[in-house]
C-alpha cells in the first residue's frame, strides 16, 4: 500500500516527523516500511511558462523557435523539438540554471545556430511516472491546464514535493489499506488525535429514483446514491496528483472520485451510468451458469452460479466487487449516475476474481473481508458530495440502502492480569486502558468478572478474541519493552531419538570415510528412471504425483535416491571433478498411506562412488573404486553404527551389474532382514548416463533401526590363556563364495575357534583354470585352559576335513 | 724381537689411522689381533727366546696387544658414530611434502546449521521431532488457523497432491501433530491435562516459487514449540536471545517487531544485529542495523484448543526460521541454489568437524 506523506498529513499531525521517521515508527508498530520514493526526482528551477508565439527554425525542419513568457521579465527564446508545441499553451519551462532528474543542468545553448535560453519539458523529462498518464500527456510536451499560473514553480504546482511510503501490510492489517486506517494507526502510535472527517450525512433533495434488491446471501449491505446532471471531464490537478502518488491512473472526475474515496476511507465504490440501468433497478444476485458479460476491459466473460453479479432486470451490469461492466460504464456522455457502496462476501469475491483472472483494487479490499461496514454509507455520501462539487452535478434524494445483516461493533472482554500473564510484562491497568483508548477502542468504566468490556469499532474486524486485544496492547505499548526471561518449569536435557542418533552417527562415519554429503531435491519425474534401468520396477515407477507441478521435470516425488545422486555426479564430472564419493540421507516416497500420514515416507542412506578413492601420497597413483572399496565403506558404516554379523548375499537388482551386486542382510529373529543393497551400476546405465565405473549403496533406515534394536554392548573379559594360530591355504572352484567357506570353518572350529579371517585371495595364471586360491587365518583359544598342540591339531584337522567334504577344497602346501 | 714388536705397533697404529669404515676396521683387527694375525704370529716365535728374555718379551707383547686393542676400541667408537651420522643424514625427509592423509569428507552446510541449532535447543530441554513432508491440508493449514479461503493462503502458494493432501509449506503442522500426540497420550492415561511440550522440528518444506538466487521451491525450516503453564512472551524473547547469541555471537541483540501469522497471537518478526555492520547500518541491512531471521509468537489459543489443550490453563510460544538463510549469512553464500547443486569444490570447505 502506497501512502503519500502530504496526503496523510491532511488527516493527522505529522509535520514533526520526516517520512523516514514516520516509516520507522510504523515499522516498530508492525507495519514495515522499507521503501520511500521521492516524487520529485530532482526537478528544480522549472516553472510554468506561456508559449507566446512559435516560428519555424531556419536551419532545421523539426525544430521550432518559441517565445516564452516564464514570468522572468523579458521573454525567453527557446528552441523546441516537440511537434505538439503551439502558441497559447502553458508548458513546463526549464530556464537556464534549472535542473532536471539525472543531474541534467540547463545551460544557454545554440541549436543549429539559434540561441536557446532553456528547455520546454515533457512529463518524462520531469521524472513523472508516465505509465499512469494518458497517451496525449506523454507524447511531446507536457501541456498544463490553461489556468496554470505563469512563473509558478512546477514541482510545487504539480504537487511533486512529496514522499511516497510503501507499507508492507500483513494480511490481517487490511484495515490499513486506506488513509483512514493508516491515520488511526499513526494516531495510536504517536498518541495524538486525528483530524479527519468521517461522518457524512447530507442528503439531496427529493427522493431517489433507484430501487435496490438483494437476492443473494453473499451481499449483506448495498447502498446506492444518485447524482444527476454531471459533466464528465478531466479531474482537477490535486485529485490527479493524489491518485498518481498512490499508483492509480486518473480517468475522469467521476471514476477518480470513487477511487479517491476508496483510498481515503477504504470503501470500494462503483459508478454506473443510470441511463444504462434498465428500470432504474439494481439487483444483487448470483450469476446463472453460462451467462455472459463484457467487463470494463472489453473482455467477454462466461459466468457461473458461484459468482455474484450486479444486474438490472434485463442484464448483468457488473461483477460484484471485482469489475464493472462495459454496458453501464460512465463515459463522456453520461449525465446521471448511480453510485454503489456495498459489502460483498470475501470468499465469493476472491473465487470470482481468481476464476476470471481478474484482480482489482476493489477486489483486493473485499476479499480480505476487512471492509468497515460502518463506513459503507459514509463513503457513499462523501463520494456523491465530491462528484457534485467537481462534476457540477446534483445529489438527488438520500442513499437507498438494503441491509441483510447489520454490522455491530465487537464487544470483547479483556482481563488486565491476563495481559501480563501472556506477555510477561508489568503493564498497569491505567497504561493498558490508555493504550486501548489510543487505538480508538471504547473501554467500559466497569468490570465484569474482573474483565474490562472493550468495544471495538467496525473498522477493526480482525479483533475477534481477548488475545487479539492483548496483541494490540503489546504492539502499542512496545515489543521492545517486553523483558527477556526463560521459561520456568521442570525440564530435562533433551534427547535425540534412536533414528536421529543413527542419522548423526552414519553421517559422521561416512564423512570420516571420505564421503561428501549432498542434499538433493525430492521432486523428480518418472522419465529419470529409464536411463538407469530402474523403469522396469513397478514400485519405482509408481510415484506420488503433484497436482500442480511447476514443470514436468519436477512433477512427482522420488522413489529412489540413485537418479538424484547420478545427477550430482554428472554435475561434478562436467566440472572436471572425476573422483567422487558422495552420500545423502534422504527420503523416498510411495503412494500407500502411512500411519496418520497421507503417503509413506522412508529414509535412505545412499552413497555413490566413482573415479579413484583413498589416501594418496605424493607420486602415488589413485586406486580406482571397485566393489570392495564401496563394500569397505558400508562395512565401516555398519561397524560405526554398531550393527554386526552382516551378510552380503549375491543378488540381482534393476540398474545394477548382475555380477557385482549384493544384498546386505542380517539374521534377525529367525528371518533375514534386508538392510540394503550394494553394487556397481549396470554398464548400460553407465553408458546411458555417460559415467565411468560407478558404484552405489543404499541402506534402509527402518531396517537399520530394527537390526540395531537389541544391541547392548557387554565387553567380554580379556583372554587369560594364550592362543594358537593356524593358517589354511586351499584351492576351490572359482564360483565358490569365500564367505561360504568361512561359515564351514566356523562351524567345524566350534568353541575353540575364536576368530577366522581371509588373508589372501588369488585367481589367475598361477592356479589351474576354473579354480581360485584362498588363505584363511584361524585363531584357537580356550577361556579355561592353555590348549595343547595336539588338541588344536585334532580340531584343525576337523576343519580341513569339513572344507574338503563341503567344498571340494584342495589343500595347498 | 723387541724391535719387531715396536715396529709392528707403529705400523699397526699408522694403518689404523687411515681406516674409514667398520669393514676395514674388522680386516685390520684380523690382520693384527686375530688368531692368525701378526701379533699371534710373533707370540708363536717366542719359543726361540731364552728363559730370561721370554717374560720380558711376553710383557711387551701384552703391552702391544693392549695398546692395539685400546686403539681399536677408540677407532671403532669413532667410526660407529660417523656411520650413524651418515645414516641419519641419508634418512632425513622433506617434512614439507604432503602427508598420506585419510581424506575427510564433508557435512552438508545445511545439516551443519541444523545440527548446531538442534544442539542449542537440546541443551534447553527441547526434543527434536521429524514430520512428514507430504501432509494433510488439515495439519498444514486448518489446524494452524488457516481455514479454506483464508487470506493467508495467499502468502503460501502450495504444491498439492490432491484436494486434501499437499507438500507442507512450513514445519508448523508439526505443532499440531506434536500437541495432538501429547494430548492423546494424556487421554489414554486418563489424565485431565496433557504434558508440557518443548520441541523443535527441522525439515524440508515446499513453496511454488521459481528457483533463483534467493528462492527455492524446496528449503529447510526449523520450527520451535513450547507449551506449558505460565509461558509468556518474555520467555520467547529470552529463549530467542539466548539462541541468537549462541549461533551468531555473544554480542548480538535481538529486536521484536509486531507481525502476523495465523497460528500465533501476538505475532512477531525477530531481527538480530546486522552481522555485517554490527548495527550501525549498511547495505546488507538496508541501513536499519537489523537483519530479520525468524518469525515467532505466542501460540494462538485456537491451535491449542483444536488439539485438546485448555488455552486458559496452557500458553505457549512458537517460532520458525529458514535454515538456508542462516547458512547463507553464516558462510557468505549468496545463491541459495548452491546448497542443492552439491559442487564438491564448494563442499570441500566444510571438512572441519567443529
Ligand atoms: Zn548492516
TrEMBL record, chain A:
InterPro entries: aa-tRNA-synth_II/BPL/LPL, B3/B4_tRNA-bd, DNA-bd_dom_put_sf, Fdx_antiC-bd, Fdx_antiC-bd_sf, NA-bd_OB-fold, Phe-tRNA-ligase_IIc_bsu, Phe-tRNA-ligase_IIc_bsu_bact. It comes from the Bacteria. Mg(2+) binds at residues 462, 468, 471-472. Residues 407-484 form the B5 domain. It holds the Pfam family B5. Binds 2 magnesium ions per tetramer. The lineage of its organism: Bacteria, Bacillati, Bacillota, Bacilli, Bacillales. This is Phenylalanine--tRNA ligase beta subunit. Tetramer of two alpha and two beta subunits. Belongs to the phenylalanyl-tRNA synthetase beta subunit family. Type 1 subfamily. One of its GO terms (molecular function) is phenylalanine-tRNA ligase activity. PANTHER family: PHENYLALANINE--TRNA LIGASE BETA SUBUNIT, PHENYLALANYL-TRNA SYNTHETASE BETA CHAIN AND LEUCINE-RICH REPEAT-CONTAINING PROTEIN 47. It catalyses: tRNA(Phe) + L-phenylalanine + ATP = L-phenylalanyl-tRNA(Phe) + AMP + diphosphate + H(+). Residues 40-155 form the TRNA-binding domain. Its cofactor is Mg(2+). Its EC number is 6.1.1.20. Residues 719-812 form the FDX-ACB domain. It is found in: Cytoplasm. Keywords: Aminoacyl-tRNA synthetase, ATP-binding, Cytoplasm, Ligase, Magnesium, Metal-binding, Nucleotide-binding, Protein biosynthesis, RNA-binding, tRNA-binding. PROSITE patterns: B5, FDX_ACB, TRBD. It comes from Tumebacillus lacus.
TrEMBL record, chain B:
Its cofactor is Mg(2+). Residues 61-92 form a coiled coil. PROSITE patterns: AA_TRNA_LIGASE_II. Binds 2 magnesium ions per tetramer. Tetramer of two alpha and two beta subunits. Keywords: Aminoacyl-tRNA synthetase, ATP-binding, Coiled coil, Cytoplasm, Ligase, Magnesium, Metal-binding, Nucleotide-binding, Protein biosynthesis. Residues 113-328 form the Aminoacyl-transfer RNA synthetases class-II family profile domain. InterPro entries: aa-tRNA-synth_II, aa-tRNA-synth_II/BPL/LPL, Phe-tRNA-synth_IIc_asu, Phe-tRNA_ligase_II_N, Phe_tRNA_ligase_alpha1_bac, Phenylalanyl-tRNA_Synthase, tRNA-bd_arm. Belongs to the class-II aminoacyl-tRNA synthetase family. Phe-tRNA synthetase alpha subunit type 1 subfamily. This is Phenylalanine--tRNA ligase alpha subunit. It catalyses: tRNA(Phe) + L-phenylalanine + ATP = L-phenylalanyl-tRNA(Phe) + AMP + diphosphate + H(+). The keyword Ligase applies. GO terms for molecular function: phenylalanine-tRNA ligase activity. The gene is pheS. It comes from Tumebacillus lacus. It comes from the Bacteria. Mg(2+) binds at residue 265. The keyword Protein biosynthesis applies. Pfam families: Phe_tRNA-synt_N, tRNA-synt_2d. Its EC number is 6.1.1.20.
